[in-house]
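quick one before i forget lol
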Amino acid sequence: MATGAEGSLLWSVASGSSLPNGLSLNANTGELSGTPTDAGTYNFSIQVNDDVDVATVQFSLKVSSAPLILDATGDFPDLTSGAIPYYIDTTRDALAIDASNTNYRGPFARAVTTFSGWNDTYAVTIDTLGEEDGESTYRFYVNGALMGSVENTPTTEAYNPQTHILVPQVIIPSGATLWVESNADSNGLIPEGSGFAWSRGRWTTLTLTPVDDGVPETYVLAVNSGSGDGNYQAGTVVNISADAAPAGKAFAAWTGDVSTVADVTNATTTVTMPAGAVTLTATYVDVLTVNSFTLMDAITNLPVAGYDPIPSHAVINTNVIGTTNLYIRANTSPTKDFGSVVFDLTGATTKLVIESRPSWTISGSFNNGEHTLTATPYDANSGVGNAGHALTLQFTVTDAVRYEAEDAVLTGGTVADLAQASGGQFVDGSAGFKVSWNVTASAGTIN
């Protein structure tokens, strides 16, 4: 109930809080309604807003399951997994052992079922039929572990209804395998033929009643590739963190039971525990990276020999290559399936190019001179979003003519004259000078 309100009221579940599954909150009346689907203790906060202010109150709600009554003849599909089988006594709607078979006297028959109730703590009772000729023993198992056993009380009445507590308090998880076993027994009091009569281990009903064990229920949080694992009460806010990303990777998102995760895209965040197990996995993606550049022939769309990749401080001579129809491709990892690449070219040629689909290229004419090219990948189109690892390249464009002379004999001029030639190289050999240079000015002659 809200008091002192000004104007209309609006009810809501506070941020970071959640209702038990199956319950809903009426935003206009503040009424909680529905049927919870899971047992447990739930901590949550409800807030109410008026035209001026907001108020918040915390609640703790314990939800227990209803008693579960399992019929021996209808709810236990497997009657043959024990040392001996059960048969159905239709007259008494009970499971029983055929004690007329002497091999069935003493060993235990077993009835098996799968528990469909909630994770909870239960008191387990069994309804049996006592017999005057023997006191049969009854045993109860959860997932193959013996939890309790009882023996029928002696009676002088045939098929005497009895109720026994098999175990006063036991945690039974949903989906557990349950066994009930009993045996045939003789007390040696009722003569039959050359011996004595035997009881047949009859039973009719197994009842599981939730009990308050005084301990709040906890649920498992499993965090794969991260930290925060543990057992927590419903409503607990748990800090979780993803492991450091492997080389070349970056955190992407949390996956799994993410409905109560505060921010699935944040490597460090919180999860509010529901009344049930939660499994979360940190996932990673390749870091967007520009690894290198390749000089491409725009006519053939093939890499230019010697420029795949383009080396740092490369000289791109369009006369030597034989064309000015060139473009530069950024080589990325991953090669595609991400947003965009921004090319920032400065120097002799200035351009800003945004490519939003592969292949990632910058084209057009490149002026002679020095250039600096930086390519930056982004995880969204149009050069927005998160930037990856950029790469910067320095290169020079020229169209200077290059001449080469092999085994040329210098007959005029001097070595000093040749030294004036830009890029000249001189190798002393038996045939004279080997010369290879880009001529910008020369003196002397070569014959």
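fyi The first strand starts at residue 10 and ends at 13.
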